[in-house]
Amino acid sequence: NAGVTQTPKFQVLKTGQSMTLQCAQDMNHNSMYWYRQDPGMGLRLIYYSASEGTTDKGEVPNGYNVSRLNKREFSLRLESAAPSQTSVYFCASSPWSPISGANVLTFGAGSRLTVL
Amino acid sequence: AQTVTQSQPEMSVQEAETVTLSCTYDTSESDYYLFWYKQPPSRQMILVIRQEAYKQQNATENRFSVNFQKAAKSFSLKISDSQLGDAAMYFCAYRARSGYALNFGKGTSLLVTP
Questions:
Q1: Cβ distance A23 to A83 under 8 Å?
Q2: For residue B42, is it left (φ>0), alpha (ψ between -120 and 50) or beta?
Q3: Could A58 and B101 be called an inter-chain contact, meaning their C-beta atoms sit closer than 8 Å?
Q4: pLDDT digits (tens, 9 = 90+) for A46-78
Q5: Which residue of B has its CA nearest to A88?
Q6: Contact B14/B113 with Cβ under 8 angstroms?
């Protein structure tokens, strides 16, 4: 019962470096999400993928790209990291469909990223 | 755009007492869902309770209950018989029925004292 798995859990980057955060879920969920959490700001949506093959911008997409590799995996890429991207990143998934109910999000454990 | 407001950055409660965390939201939708998530120091996001807007009855989950006031756009969380393990950051969240993602408030840090 792994749920949502994120890697890495911790990463330190220098300004301008690139990296990819990986996320995989084993619950056969349709939808996947990337959020960032900053002190005093709550969780803000970066990108989401409503279903395999689609991705859409959230509230704070600048500086990020995503790939929905298949139904299980949804990666987040920082092409040129900036100190403002220092944050905790959460991946989540849900069994969203147009006719279903509350579609509760299941979250990964988070990835703490520091950009120097 | 929908906004979720948690006006209490920090709250404190004594063990075994009751505490209420406030949440208001702004939306033009009539059908939506509301959630409370708990984030303990482990950082894991844990669903506490959820409410469907078309249900007038307030949701309850053991010691956790909500006071859902649709007209006032208010969704408060009541924790009864508080335990040390309830200490965490609590986030209120909203999702329109037709929407995909959750919109979160900024959170309330709950401290539980012995």
A1: no
A2: alpha
A3: yes
A4: 999 988 889 999 999 999 999 998 999 999 999
A5: B43
A6: yes
